[in-house]
Amino acid sequence: MTFTNKKLEYKVTLDTELNLFIVFSTTDHNKVATGTTIEQAVKELEKIA
Questions:
Q1: Origin, by domain of life (predicted)?
Q2: How much is the pLDDT for 6?
Q3: How far apart are CA 17 and CA 27, in angstroms?
Q4: Sheet holding 20-25, edge to edge
Q5: 8-state DSSP, 29
Q6: Is residue 41 within a helix (H) or strand (E), and if so which, with residue range?
Q7: How far is CA 27 from CA 8, 16, 20, 36, in A?
Q8: Which residues are bridge partners to 31 per DSSP?
Q9: Which residues pair with 21 in a beta bridge?
């Protein structure tokens, strides 16, 4: 599923083994961030985007 906020467009997946959300930039697939919540993962992605 693709989401958009004011700054970027991203996709979210959940690693159920590690219990981490993984967020991928849809414009640059090399930019990936993780977090224990979706919000935390998106904030980390915004830092590198």
A1: Bacteria
A2: 75
A3: 27
A4: 2-4, 9-15, 20-25, 32-35
A5: T
A6: helix 38-48
A7: 8, 25, 22, 23
A8: none
A9: 14, 35
Given phi > 0 = left and psi -120 to 50 = alpha, else beta, which region is 19? left
pLDDT for res 25: 94
Rounded CA separation 44/26 (Å): 15
pTM of the model: 0.85
- pLDDT tens-digit profile, the chain (49 residues): 678 877 789 999 999 999 999 999 999 989 999 999 999 999 999 999 8
Q: Are 26 and 18 spatial neighbours (Cβ–Cβ below 8 Å)? A: no
Residue-level pLDDT at 5: 79
